[in-house]
Specification:
By secondary structure, the chain is of the alpha/beta class. The chain contains 8 helices and 25 strands. Strand 13 and strand 14 form a beta hairpin.
């Protein structure tokens, strides 16, 4: 079931205060893709404070060097996290073929001996076809025997594996499997972007994976995804982890679409606002991350809402699936926990030439897209010098008022509205938006010249 909020869907119900804690609370794990592996003092404190948290750190990539599997790059491990640490080993296709041959598991055991003692488990990312699952299962069994230091043995599951008759045996050979409810390359089309999360068969897939003895991690992306389409409609490339906030306020990008999509995680649950989408067209050539973008190209940003992560966790916990260990989110640093209230604040700051106006989001999620954030401004007889970008003035029949609208406002990026010059009487501003439950919210502020 899918629709856009606020039209067409009732707001999600808030959890009751008297609901008892789940019998099988889920852990939360975070993927750390960067190198070297470092943690700030604040990140270390957060990991220490959170219960049932673990880190999955990219340990490096294996490829073929002079006819043998070898590290193409390897992680540096200066950080000492206060939680369980898993090493994620990505393997290229040629090296995977070699590791699945007789003797390959022993080579893999030698290569992973260099991992630090703080690593308590290994998750293998093996790009093999579903027909090779028996060989993959044999590799895991042989690798477990060949390890000198016994570590928890895990594997990242490719969606096509789940239809193979060899999948149940894999779920017993591994001690932990990570199901992925997304496809990096499944981006849809320029005009119809695919959903970032694909949880349509959530319960069925978890249930099938739970038929083995392995613990199950539910893997989902959290970092924003940006897909660039050229003027001819062909895909230019994909970037992960870019903050969409600055692009909404940049005059190079002309907004074309913004919406919040909802998801029903199971057939028994109501829809929740799960994913935000913002599309814009480049008015001139520019760059987006590593990608060169020509004029007329379109970028489609997609990112998941914090409130949806909480709702998904409650939904899975409610089913009390004993073999589900937790949720594995592919992002670092972790985003805020996410409350749906979404407070916004207006901020006036006096400067020699007048006053600057900024809108900030001190919350943990963004207002719903679609309605966006609307600002009504009485400039007090002054004029607004605006930096432009996605905030557009609307035509109104009320002289002396300025109306602006911003497509979205993330906690990470404030909206700099502009600077007012020449005000001779009090300046008044009013914000309206819808929070994560669909409720209409309002904030007001005023500034008086000479004070």
């Amino acid at each position: 079931m899918a629709c856009l909020l606020p039209a067409g869907c009732a707001p999600p119900a808030a959890p009751s205060a008297g609901v008892p804690p789940p019998a099988h609370p889920l852990g939360v794990a975070w993927g750390y893709p960067a190198a070297p592996f470092r943690l700030s003092a604040a990140e270390t404190a957060r990991l220490r404070a959170e219960n049932r948290t673990s880190l999955y750190v990219s340990a490096g990539e294996l490829g073929m060097v002079q006819g043998r599997p070898a590290w193409l790059w390897v992680q540096q491990w200066p950080a000492k996290p206060p939680c369980p640490l898993r090493a994620v080993v990505r393997v290229r296709a040629d090296a995977a073929a070699a590791l699945l041959q007789p003797g390959g598991a022993r080579q893999a055991a030698v290569l992973t001996e260099t991992l630090p003692a703080s690593v308590t488990g290994i998750q293998w990312e093996l790009p093999v076809a579903a027909e090779q699952l028996p060989a993959c299962t044999a590799f895991l069994n042989a690798f477990r025997t060949a390890q000198r230091r016994q570590r928890l043995l895990g594997v990242a599951v490719r969606p096509e594996w789940e239809k193979s008759p060899g999948f149940p045996a894999l779920c017993t050979a591994a001690e932990e499997i990570a199901l992925r409810f997304y496809e990096e390359e499944a981006v849809g089309t320029r005009d119809e972007p695919a959903r970032y999360w694909d949880t349509r068969d959530l319960l069925r897939r978890i249930g099938k994976a739970s038929e083995g003895t392995a613990q199950v991690q539910v893997g989902l992306p959290v970092s924003p995804r940006a897909v660039v389409w050229g003027p001819d409609g062909q895909r230019v490339g994909i970037e992960f982890g870019l903050d969409p906030g600055p692009f909404a306020a940049h005059p190079v990008w002309l907004p074309e679409r913004s919406e919040t999509r909802t998801l029903a995680f199971t057939p028994f649950s109501g829809p929740v606002p799960a994913e935000d989408l913002f599309a814009a067209r480049a008015v001139r050539s520019t760059r987006l991350g590593r990608l060169g973008v020509s004029a007329g190209s379109r970028v489609v940003f997609q990112w998941t809402r914090a409130h949806a992560r909480n709702a998904l966790r409650r939904e899975v916990e409610k089913r009390e699936m004993a073999r589900v260990e937790g949720l594995l989110y592919f992002r670092w640093p972790p985003p805020p926990a996410g409350q749906p209230s979404v407070p916004l604040a207006l901020e006036f700051r006096s400067v020699p030439t007048g006053v600057q106006l900024t809108v900030r989001n001190p919350g943990e999620d963004s207002p719903l897209l679609g309605p966006g954030v609307a600002l009504e401004l009485d400039p007090g007889g002054g004029s607004l010098v605006s930096p432009g970008g996605a905030a557009a003035r609307s035509v109104t029949d009320r002289p002396g008022r300025i109306y602006l609208r911003h497509p979205f406002l993330l906690p990470s990026t404030p909206w700099y509205v502009g600077e007012l010059h020449g005000a001779t009487r009090p300046v008044q501003a009013r914000l309206t938006w819808r929070d994560g439950t669909g409720m209409r919210r309002r904030a007001e502020a005023a500034w008086t010249p000479g004070r």
